[in-house]
Amino acid sequence: MIRRVLSRAAALTGLAIALGLGLATAVLAASPSPSGEVGGDPRSPGQGPGLMGDPAFAILAVVGIGLIATVATLAYVKLTGGRRS
């Protein structure tokens, strides 16, 4: 039972790594040539640098990833029999 769970976990981990590498190779970088804009911060025209994106979403994403990791760890411990004396 434990070997089956571990082999499935290893297979899923390998699949996740392969998918991650496959997606990483598909990403294209920005052009190295300079843009036509003259100076300044292109992210916020007419203003200095400021917050980019949505900070509330970033905080919720980090908390969500932590919760997913906690649940996955507890499920793994439960499936593999927990602590042994």
Keywords, separated by commas or semicolons:
mainly alpha, 2 helices, 85 residues
Write the layout of secondary structure elements.
Layout: H1 2-26, H2 55-79
Structure description:
The protein is an all-alpha fold. It has helices at 2-26, 55-79. The chain starts with a helix and ends in a 6-residue tail after the last helix. The model has no long low-confidence stretch (mean pLDDT 76).
Short description:
The chain has helices at about 1-25, 55-80. It has about 80 residues and is mainly alpha-helical. The longest helix is centred in the first third of the chain and has 25 residues, at about 1-25.
Q: In total, how many beta strands?
A: 0
- What is the overall shape? flat
Strand content: under 5%
The largest sheet, given as strand count, sense and whether it forms a barrel, is: none
User: Fraction of residues in helices?
Assistant: 55-70%
Question: Order of SSEs, N→C?
Answer: HH
Structural class: mainly alpha
- Measured between the Cα atoms of the first and last residue, the distance is 19 Å
Mean pLDDT reading = 76
Q: Please compute the radius of gyration using only Cα atoms.
A: 22 Å
Number of helices: 2
- Low confidence ranges: none
